[in-house]
C-alpha cells in the first residue's frame, strides 16, 4: 500500500468541496420538487379523532359565499368557511350551503394562519392566485398558503401537508365541532 503524503492529499483537495456542492444541489433539487410539485392532496375520506363538542356558530352566520367564523378548538385556532361546493370532510346542511372547518395551525412550523379574503393580497404575499379569486388561509411566518376550496391543501410556500380538517355537526341550526382529522 502506498503511503499517504502531503502531496497525495493536495492532489485530491478538490473532492471535498465538489462533494459538498453536489450534496447541496441534490438536497435543493429534492426540496424544490417537494415544495413545488410533491404536496399531498387531502384525503377524499378523512378519518377524524373524536373530541369534545364545541359550539361554533349558527347557520345564519353564513349568508354569503366565503363567510367565515374563527373559533378555538383542540387547544388551537380554527375557522369554519362557507365554500362553493361540498368538500371532503365538510358538511352540507342545506342544498346551497357547504361548510368546511380547518385548523389554522400551519403544518410547516405551527404558526397561526390568517384568512385572506382579498385574492390580490394572496397573489402578492403568498404567490398564489386562486382560479376563481376566492379567499385563502395564509401563514405570515414563512408565506405558506392553503386553499379552502381544495379542502385545505397547501398550495404555496414551504408547508407540505394540508391543514387538518375539523369535523362539523349541525343540530337545530347550531354548528358544532366534534372532532379533528388525524
Task: Write up what this structure looks like.
The termini are far apart. The chain has 182 residues and is α+β, with helices and mostly antiparallel strands. Strands 1, 2, 3, 4, 5, 10 and 11 form a 7-stranded antiparallel sheet that branches. It folds into 2 domains: 6-36; 48-181, 3-layer Sandwich (Rieske Iron-sulfur Protein), CATH 2.102.10. The protein has 3 helices and 11 strands.
CATH architecture of the largest domain: 3-layer Sandwich
Chain-averaged pLDDT: 90
Distance between the termini: 59 Å
Report low-confidence residues grouped into runs of 5 or more: none
User: What is the radius of gyration computed over CA atoms, rounded to a whole number of angstroms?
Assistant: 23 Å
Number of helices: 3
Secondary-structure element string: HHEEEEEEHEEEEE
Amino acid at each position: 500500500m502506498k503511503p499517504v503524503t502531503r502531496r497525495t492529499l493536495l492532489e485530491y483537495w478538490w473532492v471535498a468541496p465538489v462533494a459538498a456542492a453536489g450534496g447541496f444541489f441534490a438536497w435543493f433539487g429534492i426540496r424544490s420538487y417537494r415544495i413545488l410539485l410533491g404536496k399531498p392532496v387531502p384525503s377524499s375520506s378523512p378519518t377524524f379523532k373524536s373530541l369534545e363538542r364545541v359550539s361554533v356558530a349558527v347557520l345564519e352566520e353564513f349568508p354569503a359565499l366565503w363567510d367565515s367564523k374563527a373559533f378555538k378548538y383542540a387547544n388551537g385556532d380554527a375557522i369554519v368557511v362557507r365554500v362553493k361546493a361540498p368538500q371532503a370532510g365538510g358538511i352540507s346542511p342545506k342544498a346551497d350551503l357547504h361548510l368546511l372547518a380547518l385548523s389554522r395551525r400551519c403544518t410547516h412550523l405551527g404558526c397561526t394562519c390568517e384568512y385572506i379574503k382579498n385574492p390580490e393580497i394572496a397573489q402578492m404575499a403568498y404567490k398564489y392566485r386562486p382560479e376563481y379569486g376566492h379567499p385563502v388561509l395564509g401563514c405570515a411566518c414563512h408565506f405558506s398558503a392553503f386553499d379552502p376550496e381544495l379542502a385545505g391543501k397547501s398550495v404555496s410556500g414551504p408547508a407540505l401537508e394540508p391543514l387538518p380538517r375539523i369535523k362539523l355537526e349541525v343540530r337545530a341550526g347550531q354548528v358544532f365541532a366534534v372532532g379533528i382529522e388525524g
